[in-house]
């Protein structure tokens, strides 16, 4: 008797659940078909996916030493320094690829941010509850297909080995060098402190300070509006975080040097930089 009752409830529950799941499935399909934000995200993904560069380089370097003496006299730092001095151009190119990935990904993120204005636009239903559901599912779909960050860091694993003739004893030194350590080593291999690579490194550090968090803070501070014309995403413009004094002219990535600009004001900015420079000079 009791078992019968339970199985009836279970049956009703299962029918209900499968109806809900089917309804959800079809609704999701509808969202995907009609969503502007989803379409736009696919388009942006297509553009950027091919631009991200895969960093191909030797990550693990193993060096065998013929004698214990030569093994003892060498260190992982020395080896790194030798590698960087010998293949300076190679590592410079590698770094510029990593920098390009980082810049592209920042650009990609701001495209994604601007795409948020399309959320909910494709929904033709008037009902508030359905619109809310539509919005949530759409947001979920769009954030799920967002591209992962491409490689922007370089790291090397160095392993130095000496094995005694009959393999009785083996000695190893092992160290992983991260991006900053390699950059430092590369810089050290240059005589002048003021060459273009050092400048490039400084610019890179400044650009890297522009995190998603900082971006949002500036957007919030400026009320999600262009500081010059006051328009927002709702007015159909794209918003950028702008360096008032550009990085290339020595500007820093600090809140006082950042502001929100729309794409139009950003394009016409060159005159305003001059104005700003004048202010700085006074
Ligand atoms: Zn503007």
User: What's the β-strand tally?
Assistant: 5
User: Which ions and ligands are bound to the chains?
Assistant: zinc ion
Strand order of the largest sheet: 1-2-3
Structural class computed from helices and strand pairing? mainly alpha
Helix coverage percent of residues?
55-70%
N-to-C CA distance: 93 Å
Silhouette: flat
Order of helices and strands: HHEHHHHEEHHHEEHH
User: Which segments are poorly predicted (pLDDT under 50) over 5 or more consecutive residues?
Assistant: 273-282
Strand content: 5-15%
Number of helices: 11
Taking all residues together, what is the mean pLDDT? 86
Biggest beta-sheet profile = 3 strands, mixed
Write down the Rg.
28 Å
Q: Which terms summarize this structure?
A:
mainly alpha; 56% helix; 282 residues; 3-stranded mixed β-sheet; 5 strands; single chain; flat; binds zinc ion
Structure explained in plain terms:
It is a single chain. With 282 residues, the protein is mainly alpha-helical. Among the domains are: 55-118 and 148-208, no CATH class; 212-282, no CATH class. It has helices spanning 2-34, 36-49, 68-73, 76-86, 88-115, 128-144, 179-188, 196-208, 212-221, 263-267, 270-281; strands at residues 60-65, 156-163, 170-177, 239-243, 258-262. α1 (2-34) crosses α6 (128-144), α2 packs antiparallel against α5 and α5 packs parallel to α8 (196-208). The N and C termini lie far apart (93 Å). Mean pLDDT is 86; it is low at 273-282. Bound molecules: zinc ion. Zinc ion is lined by residues 226, 228-229, 231, 261-262, 264-265. Zinc ion binds at residues 226, 228-229, 231, 261-262, 264-265.
């Amino acid at each position: 008797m009791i078992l019968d009752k339970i199985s009836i409830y279970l049956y009703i529950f299962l029918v209900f659940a499968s109806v809900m799941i089917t309804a959800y499935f079809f609704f999701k399909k509808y969202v995907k078909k009609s969503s502007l934000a989803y379409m736009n995200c696919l388009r942006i993904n297509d553009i950027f996916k091919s631009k991200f560069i895969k960093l191909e380089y030797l990550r693990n370097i193993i060096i065998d030493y013929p004698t214990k003496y030569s093994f003892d006299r060498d260190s992982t730092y020395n080896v790194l320094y030798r590698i960087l001095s010998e293949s300076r151009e190679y590592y410079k190119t590698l770094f510029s690829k990593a920098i390009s990935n980082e810049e592209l990904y920042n650009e990609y993120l701001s495209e994604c941010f601007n795409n948020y204005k399309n959320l909910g636009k494709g929904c033709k239903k008037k009902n508030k509850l359905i619109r809310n559901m539509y919005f949530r599912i759409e947001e979920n779909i769009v954030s799920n297909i967002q591209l992962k960050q491409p490689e922007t860091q370089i790291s090397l694993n160095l392993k130095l080995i000496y094995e005694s003739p009959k393999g009785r004893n083996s000695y190893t030194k092992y160290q992983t060098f991260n991006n900053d350590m390699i950059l430092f080593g590369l810089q050290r291999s240059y005589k002048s402190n003021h060459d273009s690579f050092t400048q490039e490194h400084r610019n890179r550090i400044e650009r890297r300070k522009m995190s998603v968090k900082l971006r949002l803070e500036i957007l919030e501070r400026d009320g999600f509006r262009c500081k010059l014309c006051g328009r927002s995403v709702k007015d159909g413009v794209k918003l950028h975080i702008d360096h008032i004094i550009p990085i290339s002219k020595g500007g820093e990535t600090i809140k006082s040097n950042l502001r929100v600009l729309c794409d139009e004001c950003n394009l016409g900015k060159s005159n305003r930089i001059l104005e700003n420079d004048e202010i700085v000079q006074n």
